[in-house]
Every structure is written in structure tokens, then in C-alpha cells.
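Exercise 7. Predict the joint structure of the components listed below.
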Amino acid sequence: MGAQLRTIRRRIATTKSMAKITRAQELIASSRIVKAQQRVRESGPYARQITRAISALVSHNVGVGHPLLTERTDSNRVAVLLITSDRGFAGGYNANVIREAEGLMTLLREQGKEPVPYIVGRKGVGWYRFREREFAAEWTGFSDKPRFQHAEAIGRTLVGEFEKPADEGGVAEIHVVYTEFMSMLTQTAQVRRLLPLEIEEAEEAPSEQSDGVLPAYEFEPSAETVLDALLPNYIESRIWHMLLQSAASEHAQRRRAMKSATDNANDVIENLTRVANQARQAEITQEISEIVGGANALAESSAGSE
Amino acid sequence: MAKLHVELVSPEREIWAGEADMVVAKTIEGEMGILPGHAPVLGLLVDGSVVRIKPADESEIISAMVSGGFFSVASNEVSVLAEYAELGGEIDLDAAREEYERVSGLEGEDAALAQRRARARLRAAGQEV
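Solution:
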């Protein structure tokens, strides 16, 4: 077998095994999207109820002057939480989040503020380390399967930073850059301000509108205490929501990246097979013409001698 | 008689939902029994307490250990939102007892919370502590 043919065959073999791997990754990602979406759904009732409770509290005007609801002017530090993934192979997932965050930080700097990054996910941490940039804290190891404890830990840290006095490095605002799962096909990196709080209506708000007016709640033990306890929970639930959305997006983008990798590999295999066939055919043709040429030469030489 | 529509949810999932005759939850100021027609209330749950639900279909009382969170009552809808919750039936009794033995000797504020949680877990599982 000719050397050219052998190298091509070897390339076909490696491409095939690569296609198998990417195909497996694609299938794994697809099954995980379903699970991730399921978890997004399961977190729905809690998010809806806590939003309703907070809205009820705020409509009773107990939130006025609460530190978590008021703008701080004494510090120009701004925390930016980036939610990236732990593993690569997810197309532009991390690049999009990081680009969005860079845009936000440039904007903040232009406004004379000092952004302080907080990072979720090994890829984001790696990106910052490689560029030797500073960041305040990192959380890794759960990006594809977050648990509520993680959201709780992140929430506590961030709220703690927000409540610190300015001279101890307290931050005046907290922004989050994460990836929203719009549909199987679209996931977009988005920026949200977490603190000071703006109460967002739960996404399924329309269905709740039937009982539009909030009931006149009594608070046990008192409205202020309830609000104090509820606001950190609400923030954790927002972070939880963002972690879940990001996880679902990560799987969706990985699935797409792996699908196009598999498709590409199959294209490459097809092209290489053609080249290999051509090389094989050329070899055969050459061999035949050599045999025919040799036979002719032999016949001629023996005819001449007689 | 009117029934209560009860939802017991944690951030990760819905733990129990259905019709009930009565819900008992513990706030900082004491235990509170909620019957149909109760006035709207928003109350904080004691971290490490037991919530009991008496289902409308006369089946066994459901106990759940909850840590942190709150409950809201409005127009016969009761939502219990616990930061962490475990149904009595899902609790591993041996592990819970072991945990209770382990923390009951400790002292300090964290230990008090751990003890409360461990006791609530055992009580939700139907043990007398």
C-alpha cells in the first residue's frame, strides 16, 4: 500500500474516533438539558411565592430605608459576578459571558466606578488567572449541576460585601452576568443588577394576575423582621435562578457545539474517503499500466530476438 | 367545609402539594395552627422546626422538618417556603439519630441550631425526643 494511502486511512480512523467522542458528548448534553430544564421548572414555585411575599411587604411600605433596597453613594466599588462553566467544549458560552462582563466593566469604569469581579466556574477563573487579573472570590465545581447551597454561599458573600462599610471595601452595587436560557436554540449572555434590589415580577406573572390585589397580610412576628429575613432569601433565590439558567444554557450550547463538531468530522471523513479512494484507484491504474508496459516490453524484446 | 390548598416548597423542588384540613407551623412566637378561612399571614419559620399538614383525604398526617424560610396564608392557600425541607417519610432514621447523638453534647450558638435541626428531623420522622 502506498504511503499516501496509509496516512489518509490513519486520518480517517482518528477522525472517526473523534466523531464518536463528540457524538457521545452531544447525547450526554441533550439528556442533561432536559434535566436542567426540569430543575428550572421545579424552582418556579419557590421563586414565585417569595416574589409575591416581597411584593406584599414592599406594598406595605416596610421596605423604605432598608439597607438592601437603598442606593449607596459612599463607595465606588461595584461587584460583578460572572457565571461561567467549569468545562469547555461549549462553543462560545464562556466567551460570550466574559465579553459581556468586559463590556459592563468598561462601562462602569467610564462612570468612575471600580468593578470587582467575583467568578463562578473554572473557565472564568482560568481566563482571569491567565491574564493575571485580580478577582475577589471564586466558586467552582458545580456549574453544570448547581445546588441551592451554592447559591446560598454566593448570596451570603455578596450580601456581606454589600453591607460592609465603604472603608472596609464594601461595594455599592452588585451586578451579575449570566446566560439566560431563552430556548433550545437561543441562549444569551445577560447583565442584571442584583443589589440594590429592584423587585422583579416572577416570569409566570400573568397567571397570577387573576388575584391581582395582594391580600392584607399580618406579619409574624413583625413586618420588619420578616423583611430582614426574606430579602437575603430572595437574593439567594435570584442567584439560584441564574445558576440554573446558566447550567441549562451551558448544556444547550455544549450540545450544539458538539453537534457541529460531529457534523464537521463526518464531512472530513467523507472527503478523506474520496481522496483515499482516488489514491487507491491511481495506485491500481499505475500497477496495471506497469504490468501492461512490462508485458509489452517483454513481448517486443522476444519478438525481436526470433 | 372549605379546604386549604397547601404547597410545601424548597428552592430546589416542590416537596408536597395538595388539599389539607389543617397546617401547623412554628414561628418565632410559637406554634400556629391554620384552618380554612384563616386571615392572611406571613410568618417566619423557626430554623429547625416541624411543619405538620393534615391532608384532606383523611390519610396520615404529613410531617416535614424545615430549616429557615417562611409561610404565607392567603384566601385558603398556604405556601410553606423552606430553605431546606425534608419529609418525615424520607428521613433516614438511623442517620438522624446518630446526628442527634453527635450534636447533643456540643455547646454554643451553632450547636444549638444543629441540635434544633437534629431534633426536628427526628420529630418529623415520628420519634419522641
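Discussion. Strands of chain A lie at 77-83, 114-120, 137-139, 173-181, 187-195, 218-220.
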